[in-house]
Amino acid sequence: MFLLVVVLVVGGALWWLHSRHYESTDDAALDATPQRVSAQVAGRVTRVLVADNQTVAVGAVLVELDSADAQTSQQQATAARAQAAAQLAEADARKASIVAQAAQARANLGVAETKADNAANDLQRLVGLRREEAGSVSGEQWDRAVAAEKTAAAQVEAAAKGLTAAQSQVQFADSQIAAARAGQASAEAQVRHADLLYSYGQIKAQIAGRVVNKSVAPGNFVTPGTALMAIVPRGVFVTANFKETQLTLMRPGQAVEITIDAYPDLKLTGRVDSVQAGTGQAFSALPAENASGNWVKVVQRVPVKITIDHLPDDDRYTFGPGMSVSVKVTVR
User: Fold this and answer.
1) What pTM, to 2 d.p., does this model score?
2) Which of 15, 103, 185, 258 has the most Cβ atoms closer than 10 angstroms to its Cβ?
């Protein structure tokens, strides 16, 4: 009996010394962040290209919707873009013609101003001759010079008005070009929008993983936001719910031994990634209201995220959210 007591005491002491290095729980499960696949436009499903539990790659087409309406919108937007481009080209050509007319009006003004200067000089010479010698200039010559000077001045005024009108036409042409460019930009945006709506007719996988919870079939009419399936990524992790009294020495980076209930012979390793800032009960649908009624202190559980170092690439194993696991964290 004495030896038995000694063995029990020594064994208990050794067990305590060993167990104090670890914190373990079986209140844990595999977890993941799946992609919820849904439609972005309304339409009827024409083809479903994946099956339940099928592995898909990034960009794989999962579901195709009827694209007749989207194709029509795409064609209309393309035609509108071509029309806008033609209007812009027409506005550019019109401006080029108006600019040429303005240049001609400017040249006409220069010619008119030259003629007006000559006529004014001729009239001044006749004025000088009449001052020097009376009767040296006939009345006919005088009348012709005065008329020429007035005509030249009127031509200068008309040419100036023509140049002003041509310049205003150039400004109007610029405004037409700006409007045509805005129309072209709007048409380009409509084409991009139509292309985007057409691309929504093919629902693609945004992540690599396995198809789960598929609820769509050919012939179904779907609307934006309709859940069609989910894709579970290969990169699963563990969410372990430790008692709050087990977190005293738990820190990110500590080594973890992981055992999956479905594969008890498969031993995995991992690391503590993070500890949730709050208990699981605090974020439940009906959190505890300790300030009302009778209160009984209960040890709470806190979710701890644990990353897995390596998952075996073997078709014999299936890893998915909700699968039960047991974990043991080395805290000392």
Assistant:
1) 0.65
2) 258
Tell me which H or E stretch contains 56.
strand 55-56
Nearest Cα residue to 166 out of 220, 109, 241, 226: 109
What tokens appear for 262 in the block?
């479905």
Which one, of 277, 278, 258, lies nearest residue 269 by Cα?
Answer: 258
CA distance 245 to 14: 22
Q: Which residues contact 76 (CB under 8 A, 6 or more apart)?
A: 194
Q: What is the pLDDT of residues 21-60, one digit of tens each?
A: 899 999 999 999 899 999 988 889 999 999 999 999 999 9
- Residue 197 contacts residue 69 (beta carbons within 8 Å): no
Distance separating alpha carbons of residues 175 and 38, to the nearest angstrom: 45
Q: Which two tokens stand for residue 276?
A: 């949730």
In degrees, rounded to 5, the angle at the alpha carbon of residue 205 between the alpha carbons of residues 200 and 208 is 165
DSSP symbol at 38: E
CA distance 46 to 68: 11
